[in-house]
Specification:
468 residues, alpha/beta, Jelly Rolls, 3 domains, 6-stranded antiparallel β-sheet, 5-stranded mixed β-barrel, 12 helices
Length: 468
C-alpha cells in the first residue's frame, strides 16, 4: 500500500460546501447551514474537513465551492484554519447541485495546477472518526485515478440504513490491489432490501467521496451530460476574479441541476470503488449526533445547562437557558435563542417537514439566527416590538463600522474601547455614541477584545431624525 505520509503532488482536494441540513434545525439554518453551524463544539464540520485534508495537500491547493450568500462565514472559517484556503474559494450565485460544482472546480484545478490534477472531492459536512483510514485508501487509489479511473470510496456498512445510497461491489481489479469494479449504484432502498444488501456483504454505503483527474471528469461530463459540461465551462470562463472567485449569476443559472452520481457515476465505464471503514457519518440528523456524542449511563447526551430526571436515551442541547427534562425517553430537545425543538430522536423526516411548513409561512427562524455574522463582527437582535428595536453590536478587534448621521438611534457602549473618527475621540463603557450633524462617523475598535454597544431605535427617534 502507498505511504500516506507522502501526499501526491498532483492532489487537489475539493470541498463541497453547499446544502442546508434542515433535519438539524434549529441550529442549522439557511444562512448558517449544517457545514457552518456549531454542531460539534466551536469548530464547524467545514473546518474539521479542511483540517483533515491539509494532511494530504497544502492549503493553496484546496478548492472550496460554496454559496455566494455565505461568503463571509465561509471565508472567515477557512481563514481560521489556514490563510491560503481563501485562494481558491469559488462562489455559486445559486445551487446547481454537485455536477456543476465539481465541473467548475475541475476547470479551476486545470487552470491553476494542470489537467492532470487529481481531484479528491469531499462533502464538507461529513465526519470521520478514523481519517487515517481514508487517507490510506486515497493513497492506494492514486495510481488508478492517474490512469483515468474515477474512484469512489465505499463505506463498510454496519446497519441496514435506508437513508443512504449503496454501491454493489464488482470483481477485484488485479492491476490495483484493493480496488474493485462497480456492478451498480443503488438508490436509497426500502428496509427489506437494505437488510438483504447488508447480509450479502458485497454492498457499501456511497459517501460521495471521489478521486479522479480533472480532465477525466470533464471528459465524462462532456460525454454523458454535454449541456452541463458546456454551460459549466462558459460560467467558469466568465468568472469574476477578486478576493473570491464569483461565478456569474446569469451563466451559472443556465447549468442544468444534477447530482454527479446521476450525471457521471451511474453511467461511466471508468468507475472503480475502494472499500474502507473510516468511521464515517454524514451527521445528517439529531439521531446521528446522539450516536456520535458521549452519553451517560442512561444513554443521554447533553450540552449546556441541562437537568435530567428519569430521562433515557435523549439528546438535549441548551444554548441560552436552563432546559429540564423529566420522565421522557428517546427525545431530541434543542434550545436556541429564538426557537425550541422537541422531537422524537429519530424523527428526522418529520423535522424536515415541520421546517418546510415554517418556511412556507415565511418564518424568519428558518433563515437566520438572532445573532448574525457581519464583516465587522456580530449583530444580535435583543428585542423588537411595536415602535422599537434593540440590537447588540460586537465590533471585532481591528474592525470599524460606519455610524449614520442624525439621531436615528441611541448607542451605548457596554464593553471594550474604541475611537470615533474623524475627531479621534476615545470611547468606552458608559459612553453614548452621539450621531454627528455634519455627516457619518466611523467607530473603530483599536483594542484586542470586542467593542460592544447597544443600539436602541424607536419610532419617535426615527421620526425626529427624518424631520432634520
Amino acid at each position: 500500500m502507498a505511504d500516506r505520509s507522502q501526499p501526491s503532488e498532483a492532489l487537489v482536494p475539493v470541498l463541497l460546501a453547499g446544502g442546508s441540513g434542515t433535519r438539524l434545525w434549529p441550529v442549522s439554518r439557511t444562512v448558517v447551514p449544517k457545514h457552518l453551524a456549531p454542531l460539534l463544539g466551536s469548530v464547524s464540520l467545514l473546518q474539521r474537513t479542511a483540517r483533515r485534508l491539509l494532511a494530504q495537500a497544502p492549503p493553496e491547493r484546496v478548492i472550496t465551492i460554496g454559496a455566494a450568500s455565505q461568503e463571509l462565514l465561509l471565508r472567515r472559517q477557512l481563514l481560521e484554519v489556514a490563510d491560503e484556503l481563501g485562494e481558491n474559494l469559488l462562489l455559486e450565485p445559486q445551487p446547481r447541485n454537485t455536477a456543476a460544482a465539481i465541473a467548475v472546480a475541475a476547470h479551476r484545478a486545470t487552470a491553476r495546477f494542470g489537467p492532470d490534477s487529481i481531484l479528491l472531492v469531499c462533502p464538507s459536512d461529513h465526519l470521520l472518526a478514523r481519517p487515517g483510514v481514508l487517507e490510506e485508501a486515497v493513497a492506494a487509489s492514486l495510481e488508478a485515478a492517474a490512469a483515468g479511473r474515477i474512484v469512489t470510496f465505499g463505506i463498510t456498512p454496519d446497519r441496514p440504513e435506508t437513508g443512504f445510497g449503496y454501491i454493489a461491489l464488482g470483481p477485484a481489479i488485479e492491476r490495483w490491489p484493493g480496488l474493485h469494479e462497480v456492478r451498480r449504484f443503488v438508490e436509497k432502498p426500502e428496509r427489506s432490501r437494505a437488510e438483504a444488501m447488508l447480509a450479502s456483504g458485497d454492498h457499501l454505503w456511497n459517501a460521495g467521496i471521489f478521486l479522479m483527474r480533472a480532465d477525466t471528469v470533464l471528459a465524462e461530463l462532456a460525454r454523458h451530460e454535454p449541456e452541463i459540461a458546456a454551460a459549466s465551462r462558459l460560467a467558469f470562463e466568465a468568472m469574476e476574479e477578486g478576493t473570491a472567485l464569483r461565478l456569474p449569476e446569469d451563466l451559472y443559472g443556465r447549468i442544468p441541476a444534477a447530482p454527479i452520481d446521476k450525471a457521471v457515476m451511474e453511467r461511466s465505464d471508468r468507475i472503480a470503488v475502494t472499500p474502507c471503514d473510516p468511521g464515517w457519518s454524514d451527521v445528517g440528523s439529531w439521531h446521528a449526533l446522539w450516536e456520535l456524542a458521549e452519553r451517560d449511563e442512561a444513554g443521554n447526551a447533553r450540552r449546556g445547562d441541562v437537568v435530567l430526571e428519569e430521562t433515557v436515551d435523549s439528546l438535549v442541547e441548551a444554548h441560552h437557558r436552563l432546559v429540564v427534562l423529566a420522565g421522557v425517553r428517546d427525545l431530541a430537545v434543542i434550545e436556541t435563542a429564538d426557537a425550541v425543538l422537541v422531537a422524537g430522536r429519530e424523527a428526522s423526516d418529520a423535522i424536515k417537514q415541520a421546517v418546510a411548513r415554517l418556511g412556507r409561512k415565511g418564518r424568519p427562524e428558518v433563515v437566520r439566527h438572532l445573532a448574525e455574522t457581519r464583516s465587522w463582527g456580530e449583530e444580535i437582535r435583543v428585542a423588537e416590538g411595536a415602535g422599537y428595536r434593540v440590537v447588540e453590536r460586537r465590533l471585532a478587534p481591528g474592525a470599524r463600522i460606519r455610524l449614520g448621521a442624525g439621531a436615528a438611534a441611541l448607542r451605548f457602549v457596554v464593553a471594550g474601547e474604541g475611537e470615533l473618527a474623524p475627531d479621534g475621540k476615545r470611547v468606552g463603557p458608559g459612553d453614548v455614541l452621539v450621531a454627528s450633524e455634519d455627516g457619518p462617523r466611523e467607530l473603530r475598535n483599536r483594542a484586542e477584545t470586542a467593542l460592544v454597544f447597544l443600539e436602541i431605535a424607536t419610532a419617535a427617534v426615527t421620526e425626529r431624525a427624518a424631520r432634520r
